[in-house]
Amino acid sequence: MKKAKRMTKDQIEKKKKNIIRTFIIIVALIVIAIIGYIANEFIILDNNKTTNLIINNRNVTGNLKNEILFQEDEIYLSKEDLQNFFDKYIYEDKENNQIITTYEDKIAVIGFEENKMTVNGSEKSTYAHAIKQGDTIYLPISEMKDVYGIDIEYIEETKVLALDSIAREQKKAIINKSAAVKSTKNFIAKTVDRVSKGESIIVIAEEGDRTKIRTEQGKIGYVKTKIISNTVVTRQNIEKTKQIEGKVNLVWDYYSQVATAPDRKDTTIDGINVVSPAFFHLNSEGQLEENIGQAGEEYINWAHSNGYKVWPMIQNAGSGMMDVTSSIMNSYTKRQELIESIINYCVQYNIDGINIDFENMKQEDVDLFSRFIIELEPRLKEIGLVLSVDVTAPDGAATWSLCFDRAVLGDVADYLIFMAYDQYGGSSTVAGTTAGYDWIELNLKKFLETYEVESDKLILAVPLYARLWEEDSNGKVIGQEPIPMNEIQETIPQNASKTWADNLKQNYVEYEEDGTKYKIWIEDIESLKAKISLISEYNLGGIAAWEKGMETDEVWQVIKDNLF
């Protein structure tokens, strides 16, 4: 049996030091825990030194660009902050010395001198107006609550301004035990407020054994979930509903300004859910003219009886209309007159939406056309109507392509319709396809990636026609003619051979007659199927077809079978 070794004097001293060190550490930890407990339970941070802004239970004070103003019992937020938090398109109309702001289904105009405001075309008295401090514009937020759809509460004691959307769910509850409100869920955290038994609080989110709340003093923090009782929903979410569930299947039903609406009685168009007849156009004076009449009213009745929505075109077509359109876009007053006319006609004729088809506009008016759409959209939304806007492919001519801000239009409108045709149009000096698959896909990617248009808001518009090109012996284009899809087969010779162009997803035919060479890139069922496949591949909002009457018999069934 081995004898236990005796500890040396140095070893005994070392052991004593370790015991003392351990004892000190334990005492220190106990002291820290006690201090942490005291801090958590009893120490409340100083009140805010500056006004804090709470929007929908989120403290956004750090994002403020300018201070919040208090003048003569009014609370003012700067134009830059309203732009950041509510309306990114808020606009200073310097011509009329006023501010125009839009949000959801409201457009409001407020000036700098008179205590009045116009909301959706109706004027009302206010207690304040817009003001300027240096170069900064301020708007009275208390006057804007109906525009932005918010409840406003200012808690002077803690300098908290709370803005809550009336369209969002809100839950309230009762505190059943007094407690500290902590800044985080951690055990040791700063105390931002205290709640007392019986106090009402707003429940922001339950996160396990902790719940995030907003106190009566406007402070946001965490308490134990078990001290919260009687949670009730005091305000429901207002859900947005879409007029068209699923994919849009639209057909333009064009007829000239001097004709009457087509008689579609006793007919149906299989699979479509929207028709867009040529009901409206701008005249040379810039006024909106309707081309509806008795035939148009019967057309609307026919469409509704078959379950189709009616989104008529509003066109600015015709020679000399570029200057007329520019004149409207450059004037807030003229834009509003046009918008009022649109709204009145929509109500009068029980229309479901509008399709804005403005083409050949000045490039320098690009932002003003966007303003027109920004100002039109809330007026249509107010009465439950859909706004769709037609645009061309990006990167084209100044007055044909560069006159559209696709990012803004795609953001504001319910639908952006990409007119994916006339890749080689009537003015081209080179023969080519009307709408090649590769060209369409390339431009779709620009809409989705470069301009960040939401895919389900983007509608692909396809042509139901092709162009027959004529070339002389030197290969120079000497003419072209649009050929409807239902006339192509009888137009080309029966013995003409077709060649499939895989990148275009089209058949190509070339032949000669009387010394003239003819070329045509055919639009048929096969080319149509290829284009439709892009809708599912990129999760687009649907399809539109130009125009009714050009199709072959099987077109609508093919679209229905491949779209849905």
Total number of helices: 12
Largest sheet: 11 strands, mixed
The tally of strands reads 36
CATH architectural grouping of the largest domain: Alpha-Beta Barrel
- The whole-number mean of residue pLDDT values reads 94
Query: Helicity, in percent?
Result: 25-40%
State the main characteristics.
TIM Barrel, elongated, alpha/beta, SH3 type barrels, Copper Amine Oxidase, Chain A, domain 1, 11-stranded mixed sheet, 12 helices, 26% helix, 564 residues
Folded structure, characterized:
The protein is an alpha/beta fold and 564 residues long. The protein folds into three domains: 52-152, Copper Amine Oxidase, Chain A, domain 1 (2-Layer Sandwich); 169-235, SH3 Domains (SH3 type barrels, Roll), CATH 2.30.30; 248-463 and 523-563, Glycosidases (TIM Barrel, Alpha-Beta Barrel), CATH 3.20.20.80. The chain is built from twelve helices and 36 strands. The strands form seven sheets. It has an eleven-stranded mixed sheet, with helices on one face. Helix 8 links the parallel strand 28 (386-391) and strand 29 (415-419). The longest helix has 34 residues, at 9-42.
Précis, in short:
With 564 residues, the chain is of the alpha/beta class.
Write the layout of secondary structure elements.
Blueprint: H1 9-42, E1 52-55, E2 58-59, E3 69-71, E4 74-78, H2 79-85, E5 91-93, E6 98-103, E7 106-111, E8 116-119, E9 122-125, E10 131-133, E11 136-140, H3 145-148, E12 150-155, E13 160-165, E14 170-175, E15 179-182, E16 191-195, E17 200-207, E18 210-214, E19 220-224, E20 228-235, E21 248-253, E22 274-277, E23 280-282, E24 288-290, H4 293-305, E25 309-310, E26 313-315, H5 321-329, H6 332-349, E27 353-357, H7 366-382, E28 386-391, H8 406-412, E29 415-419, H9 437-450, E30 458-463, E31 465-471, E32 477-484, H10 488-491, E33 498-501, E34 506-513, E35 516-522, H11 525-537, E36 542-546, H12 555-563
Parallel strand pairs: 1-13, 21-22, 21-36, 22-25, 23-26, 26-27, 27-28, 28-29, 29-30, 30-36
Antiparallel strand pairs: 1-2, 3-4, 4-11, 5-6, 6-7, 7-8, 8-9, 10-11, 12-13, 14-17, 14-20, 15-16, 17-18, 18-19, 23-24, 31-32, 31-35, 33-34, 34-35
Helix pairs in contact: 6-7, 11-12
